[in-house]
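Progress note, sequence design subtask.
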């Protein structure tokens, strides 16, 4: 119950709508967001839409271990797709519903990562990540900068 405070219903709604749009089908009415994605099958389907063939086998039946295998396969596919390790939820966060907020953060990280894949034409989730803006300075420019007295140097 403590972790429920961190959950953001608006973000969950956005994540759900994104998943529904990617897959072209709605979540079953009356089912909770975390219950629909809990066994990993929906998440694996999303990953296969973004990166076809990234998860060759999705377990649709079987016990707890088969479902957790789905989650693990999804997590591995996320990393292969370019989502940073730090953004990937732990299996128990989803399977035991310990931290659904973290799962939603992972989905947003995945949504942001899709911008870096030109083959994906949308839909997108979350803001487009900023791109690095490298600056190149010549030796003369760097030397010229050393002669300037910064105003913060004791003014």
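Output:
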């Amino acid at each position: 119950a403590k972790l429920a405070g961190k959950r953001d219903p608006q973000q969950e709604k956005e994540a759900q709508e994104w998943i529904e749009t990617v897959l072209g089908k709605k979540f079953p009415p009356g089912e909770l967001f975390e219950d629909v994605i809990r066994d990993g099958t929906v998440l694996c389907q999303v990953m296969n839409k973004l990166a076809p063939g990234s998860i060759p086998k999705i377990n649709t039946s079987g016990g707890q271990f088969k479902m957790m295998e789905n989650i693990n396969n999804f997590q591995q596919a996320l990393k292969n797709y370019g989502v940073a390790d730090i953004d990937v939820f732990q299996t128990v966060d989803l399977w035991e519903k310990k931290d659904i907020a973290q799962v939603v953060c992972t989905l947003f990280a995945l949504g942001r990562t899709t911008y870096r894949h030109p083959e994906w034409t949308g839909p997108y989730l979350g803001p487009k990540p900023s791109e690095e803006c490298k600056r190149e300075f010549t030796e003369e420019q760097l030397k010229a900068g050393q002669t300037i007295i910064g105003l913060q140097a004791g003014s």
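The chain has seven helices and no strands. Work on this subtask will continue into the next period as scheduled.
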